[in-house]
Amino acid sequence: PAAPRINPSILSADFVNMQADLERIASADFVHVDVMDNHFVPNLTFGPQMVRRIQETSPVPLDVHLMISDADRWAPGYAELGAASVTFHLEAAHDPIGLARRLRAIGARAGVALKPGTGAERLYEHLHEFDQILVMTVEPGFGGQSFMPETMPKLRALSDEARRVGAAVWFQVDGGISETTISRAAEAGADTFVAGSAVFGAPDVDVAIADLRALAAE
Ligand code: DX5
Ligand code: ZN
Fold first, then answer.
1. CB of 7 closer than 6 A to ligand 1?
2. Ligand 1 within 6 A of 34 CB?
3. Nearest-angstrom CA–CA distance, 200 and 184
């Protein structure tokens, strides 16, 4: 299998020293950018203007995670500003397949995210429409929460099905990923790991990224 990808979440970065924190994670695969609207989730981060500057500044490609309502309206703008991947929530899209096709047409990887309580059944027939599926391992909204192991059967079932049908989709986990939880997610089929506090809270960010990557590859 391909080397596991580690995507640090800048939700745990210093928002007034964003350029410095982006440069600290140059050894990562992607930078995970959490967009929140205070409506889909009870927290607010930033929108396209900030993400455009992150895109211009970051040494690594952007993995945008949209925790916003009415994703159909807003997601394409993030693809247009150059994000490598744009992931919207299944719960927040009116036409998930149509939206994924629009994102791909613009040139982004199309991602769909599932909250812990959202079933994956609707995706089974459409795995080839997505480049990545994000199985949330906490309730979206905040960093620093505890990993929810009860989400692992859903991840396992999805990744098994993707292998069965030959869909080249990446499986991402987000929330509570650390040196103590990453192996469980990898065993259940994840290949892409978002980590906020485990990276930015570490004394040496490069060591934290390398350690997570090594543990996920075991
Ligand atoms: C939560 C965000 C995550 C968050 C993860 O809603 O989607 O990306 O930053 O933070 P940690 O790794 O600290 O759980
Ligand atoms: Zn996220």
1. no
2. yes
3. 21
Residue nearest to atom 7 of ligand 1 (CA): 140
Residue pLDDT, tens place only, 164-207: 999 999 999 999 999 999 999 999 999 999 999 999 999 999 99
What is the spatial distance between Cα 4 and Cα 6, in angstroms, rounded to a whole number? Answer: 7
Complex ipTM: 0.99
Q: pLDDT tens across 48-70, in order?
A: 999 999 999 999 999 999 999 99
Q: How far is CA 57 from CA 79, 104, 211, in A?
A: 16, 23, 25
Q: Of ligand 1's atoms, which has the minimum distance to the CA of residue 137?
A: 14
- The answer to whether 148 and 176 are in contact (CB under 8 A) is yes
Q: pLDDT digits over 85-96, tens only?
A: 999 999 999 999
Question: Going from the N-terminus, what domains does the chain have, and what CATH number goes with each?
Answer: 5-217 (3.20.20.70)
Q: Give yes or no for a contact between 192 and 4, defined as CB atoms under 8 angstroms apart.
A: yes
